[in-house]
Design brief:
With 199 residues, the protein is mainly α. Helix content is 68%, strand content 0%. The longest helix is centred in the last third of the chain and has 27 residues.
């Protein structure tokens, strides 16, 4: 018997994000999930080193890679639509859960539980906090995309950047790891390779 789970996941490269907006450069779901994984890992490392937490940074990166896997089935729901009101948000959450279950059904039963835990999480406090950092990494990735687009002269992303900055700033009030990332790691985004390498 064969299983479609990984072949289905490989289709993330075909899902474009920010569908309602004119993009200077299209961002795929694969690119976004890699960025989220890298940033989530970094936030957990910051939490462990600077704030004495005991977060599993490797697991955070893994969750970041899978966090939007349901969009292979649903597509990328634009934020203004997804969060228009509570009814739409709740309905979309249910659609995401159905899509995640559909993906998990594409795995053999004996390993399905290991992947279900990546998608659904646990009740352990450290896991809950880590997932908040993954969510923050998702927002930071969106902010970076907005910065790249406005930096390329695309005014289409101007209001998205403002609203995303507000969301990230609010997260930084509760999550010190996000504040550190904003202050120490976000400013160089948009620099040229020569600037980044100090040439």
């Amino acid at each position: 018997m064969t299983y479609n789970f990984f072949a289905t996941l490989s289709r993330m490269k075909y899902i474009d994000r920010w569908a309602l907006m004119r993009n200077a450069r299209t961002e795929t779901l694969s690119e976004h999930t890699l960025d989220v994984a890298i940033i989530a890992h970094a936030l957990c490392i910051i939490g462990n080193v600077r704030y004495g937490r005991k977060l599993d940074a490797d697991r955070a990166a893994l969750i970041g890679l899978y966090h939007d896997a349901s969009e292979i089935i649903t597509g990328d729901m634009p934020t203004p639509v997804k969060y228009y009101n509570r009814d739409i948000r709740d309905a979309y959450k249910e659609v995401e859960h159905v899509a995640e279950r559909r993906l998990l059904e594409q795995l053999p039963e004996d390993i399905r539980g290991a992947y279900a835990e990546i998608f659904e999480g646990t009740d352990i406090e450290e896991d809950k906090y880590m997932r908040r950092l993954v969510k923050a990494a998702d927002k930071l990735s969106a902010l970076i995309k907005c910065m790249e687009e406005t930096g390329a002269g695309n005014g289409e992303f101007r209001t998205a950047q403002i609203s995303t900055e507000k969301s990230v700033q609010k997260m930084a009030e509760e999550l010190p790891e996000v504040k550190v990332f904003l202050e120490e790691f976000l400013p160089p985004y948009g620099s040229t390779l020569d600037e980044l390498l100090g040439r």
